[in-house]
Fold each of these.
Amino acid sequence: MSLKLNPFLFQSQHLPSMTTFRSPKFIMASTLSSGSKSVENLKKPFAPPKEVHVQVTHSLPPQKIEIFKSLEDWALDNILVHLKPVEKCWQPQDFLPDPSSDGFEEQVREIRERAKEIPDDYYVTLVGDMITEEALPTYQTMLNTLDGVRDETGASPTSWAVWTRAWTAEENRHGDLLNKYLYLSGRVDMRQIEKTIQYLIGSGMDPGTENNPYLGFIYTSFQERATFISHGNTARHAKDHGDLKLAQICGIIAADEKRHETAYSKIVEKLFEIDPDGTVMCFADMMKRKISMPAHLMYDGRDDNLFEHFSAVAQRLGVYTAKDYADILEFLVGRWKVGDLTGLSGDGRKAQDFVCGLAPRIKKLEERAQARAKQGPRIPFSWVYDREVQL
Ligand SMILES: [Fe+2]
Ligand SMILES: [Fe+2]
């Protein structure tokens, strides 16, 4: 779900210096060059080489990490309440034919009949969304990179660790349900999809959150809303194509994402209350580097630009667009009342101005890009047996 945003937009912004706030301890540089892509592909059978940039780690100073320890009880009362008890949760089986029932084969046939009415481009977006969900081990890993909130043992009783494990457990149903539905639909090349998932989990992700829970929770607030929007749109499109069961599946997943967004954005709201200056600078920092989508390193063993191609289809169908990106930013700026913050430092005020002015700028550029946009080429997607899909 990438966005065709003008990179110059971000480069030309004058961002406040973060040096007073963030003190990187370690800096690692990737050594891969994009020019050696095909050669590297042969040498690296597990994951394709991707972007080159500096990875900063542990940027949050120790005294700020203490904030999260002091918020343990607050998180217990305010964040864990957004988890649903397992007994009250839906399960994938609730939306799938029961393999032990006599009607199983008939129900599968019905799914396959409905699936015939749905075009390939829709499947490309649904498969991309499913693959994104299936790379869940990466997202749990990402949350456990965050200083002050990580699950130190794998079964830690802290509120933060309980949240992360239970959040993962709730999320695990999303990929599971979509995967089983797509398998039964008979419309997609499961082997190619499974390979893409294996590559993606092997590649990981690089959200640029620097072990910093401020950055991490801003990222997850944004991402949960992005997935809420995209699953909501695939639900709407499934309905338009006459598949109400699939619409229900996408809709029920979107509802989970919304609940998760509420929890993560509440954490960031609390950070704004405790440390407005530090939080607004992190928000600006995160937006300056752009919110990379969780599956940005996606690869199927064939298409070096698979993620860009998938994103282009999602953009064209209106499943997830550059306008959605700007809308999410605008929503979060309003949700966190960033424009109303007072008593900020000079750098804090610059970050505030940057963040508050960014969504309108993205929208203006996007409108211009849309006006200039030409129809993209048709390219084969291995997920739908190399049938060509319009970008
Ligand atoms: Fe999800
Ligand atoms: Fe999610």
Amino acid sequence: MLKPTYISALVLGVILSGCTSAANTAPVTTESAKDSAKTSTTANKTSTPAAKTRPPTATEMADFNTWRQQFRVQALNKGITPATFDAAFKGVKLDNQVIKLDGSQAEFTRQIWEYLDTATSTTRVTTGREKWKSLEKTLSAIEARYNVDAKVVVSVWGMETNYGSYRGNTSTIAGLATLAFEGRRRTFAEAELIGALKILQAGDVTPERMRGSWAGAMGHTQFMPTSYLQYAQDFNGDGKRDIWSEDPTDALASTAAYLARFGWQHKAPWGVEIKLPQNFDYTTADQSNLKPVAYWRERGVKTITGQPLPDFGDAAILVPAGAHGPVFAIFKNFKVIRRYNNATSYAMAVGHLADKLDGAGEFVASWPREERALSRSEKVALQKMLTAKGFDTKGVDGVIGPNSINAIRAYQQSKQQVADGYASASLLEQLKR
Ligand SMILES: [Ca+2]
């Protein structure tokens, strides 16, 4: 866990209100890189087959070795023994493929519904149900121990590595060493590298078996080393917290422990699909605007089937695709999922997949499938035009985050339009006029 943010093997980019982008790496979700490095848990997976990159030059190798010597001093100061360090770095080379992946920014992104279609596909649901059934005893025991719903644990497993089928095969030490050497996220990478060395020193795994995504996430549910150190569990009782084995038991228990630690509410939903009244004030639809359920009920919010909004504690209103798409009341568990990977799209996918594994169907309202996704450069253009018109997006980065959403809302209000904050192609056209 601890996914700096880029994500997934699905390699999709998503547009989402409420999200900002990824650490400009591959992918899918979005949300600010800064945030995610701090708060999330898993790291990217990435099974994206990429073109072969060139091997490092002699100069690069020399520079890399210089960095390694300096880092060795730092690691030894932090309690890593020379034997651990040297065994871990034996044969480790600079990996240009990692640098390439870390530097790539997706120009084209997918709409949230396209992302969800893939993330919660029939195949993924069917496979997940089979996996759940075959591990029923283990998953029930995990649920009983940690009070985290089995369907969510299975869902995270499905999202992170397609139920263990692509856990990544990059040496964790080599991947993190390359990121540290590259320097764009040196502090983060070095901290994770120290964590990885501590894991090796404790004997949970050998350097050879310590593999995962190119950015350091390991095992069935993609834990970053520092998250592993804090939350990994030995659930099968063999004395090792083994998230790398074929047997997913320890990894699944570790995921449950992680979610429990951040306040998972057993048997409570991540969110429910709702219907908003005609005159609803969309400026209140913001993930950070948590209010008691009574507050929303007074404002006419009902479930999509017209029932009173259920009470699972404070709720916020999520409008992921504007006023013309499905709308949700989200509860505490939504936030807990975001501790795993800090993106709105990811949290929706985990929640929706979990519900489907448990028998639920698609959302009731239709997605505005006619809306095309804006490219990164179009989002840049949108931000520039909004800012120029006095609706400050507080930066122009091609990522529609909370500041851009607020700017869009302010603009929409100035035009007496529904202030849903949605960055649509029609909004872009309107701004150009
Ligand atoms: Ca174990």
